[in-house]
Amino acid sequence: MSNIEAKIPEYFNGVGYAKEMAGLPLQAIRVPVPKPGIDEVLIHVFASSLNPLEYKLAELNFFGRTPPVILGFDIAGVVVATGAHVTGLKVGDEVTAMADCNGNGGWAVGGEGGYALAREYLTVKKPFSLSFRGAAVLPIGFLAAFLGLYGHVKEGDSVYIPGGGGGVGHLAVQMARTLGASLVISSGGNAESRALALASGAHVVLDYREDDVGAKVMALTDGRGVDVVFDLTYSESSFVQTAELVARGGIWVVLGVGPGRTTRRAVTESPVNEILERRGAAYANANVLRFYTDPATLDDKAKSLLQLAMKLSMEWAENSLVVPHIGKTIGSTTSEINEELQNMKSGKAPLGKIAVIVDLRSAGTERA
Ligand SMILES: NC(=O)c1ccc[n+]([C@@H]2O[C@H](COP(=O)([O-])OP(=O)(O)OC[C@H]3O[C@@H](n4cnc5c(N)ncnc54)[C@H](OP(=O)(O)O)[C@@H]3O)[C@@H](O)[C@H]2O)c1
């Protein structure tokens, strides 16, 4: 049984895919507003953000869902209904959440908001000082950076994070500093992304297209290598390069399914394990999606970690420790969403995060 107080429509016009593995463009699809399960809240979504996950799901449908699937898993808005076991949130709370990525998200056309379910442990109250737009760009990117760095970066560590101008990368660079790293090295493929990595707090930012990255990282660490590598590039050639840069006793953390599997379409041979073994370095995998592909991993410990990450995302943003850079804000129309997902896919996306205003009345209409 749910506690429902607000007036909720029966249907809304979501944005997603109606056919398996059809890829872009997404389309508007009329779907019923879902009812919360016992540990879920129903959120009236005011703002959201874009992640590569959305175009990848449209192309590969790798959770095996039966369409229609509504996308937009980063959400900020107001709780309009709660499940029977939800104790920490109530109707009317302003929140930020990550919707289950093997479920539906909250993008909707029409400017009156979407509706999405989120687990209580993936939902956090939004501080008054953060806008819905500012909060909505955090969940997936922050969770990815957090799973990659929290518990791995210690006070005084040296860290290498390639791609510090990306959606996850610029948050990860700030997070490494917040966790006490004394040397953060990053990289970028163009002047703008390198500038964002630098503004995010990296001590040194290399040009991964022109520089001899390996030689420079070694020179910066007196030939030792870094204590922690967090490779979020989904690039096999980067994996091979960055695995060679971990110090003995250090750790190489990869975001996603890891070496040999980045496309999800085929498994290829990768020398990364061998390199790490030779260097006496550990391997770790950070993957927000793992909790959905392998639900057994979503135990109480994992739920507490995710809840901690969601709380810290708000706290650190409020205290200016990890602040998302919003490179562009778009309206929640199929054409704007399709255009920016296509840009993201071809590596032409604006820097940092792209925010989506789903409810024009409540989230503001500001454009960054
Ligand atoms: N499984 C998970 O839990 C999870 C969660 C979140 C994201 N992801 C994945 O993580 C990846 C990054 O996500 P995002 O939102 O940050 O995407 P994004 O905003 O498109 O950023 C991609 C970044 O990768 C950098 N890059 C690409 N190749 C590189 C290389 N060889 N060396 C150094 N940097 C390189 C790019 O740098 P330049 O622009 O400077 O070239 C850019 O900064 C995506 O594939 C996404 O699907 C996975």
Automatic annotation (TrEMBL):
Output the Pfam families linked to this UniProt entry. ADH_N, ADH_zinc_N
Give the GO molecular function terms: NADPH binding; oxidoreductase activity, acting on NAD(P)H
SMART domains per record: PKS_ER (SM00829)
Instruction: Tell me what this protein is called.
Output: Enoyl reductase (ER) domain-containing protein
Q: Which organism is it from?
A: Methylocella silvestris
Query: Oxidoreductase as a keyword?
Result: yes
The protein's UniProt keywords, in alphabetical order, are: NADP, Oxidoreductase
Q: Which Gene3D superfamilies match?
A: Medium-chain alcohol dehydrogenases, catalytic domain, NAD(P)-binding Rossmann-like Domain
The UniProt entry, under InterPro entries, shows:
ADH-like_C (IPR013149), ADH-like_N (IPR013154), ER (IPR020843), GroES-like_sf (IPR011032), NAD(P)-bd_dom_sf (IPR036291)
Domain Enoyl reductase (ER): residue ranges? 23-356
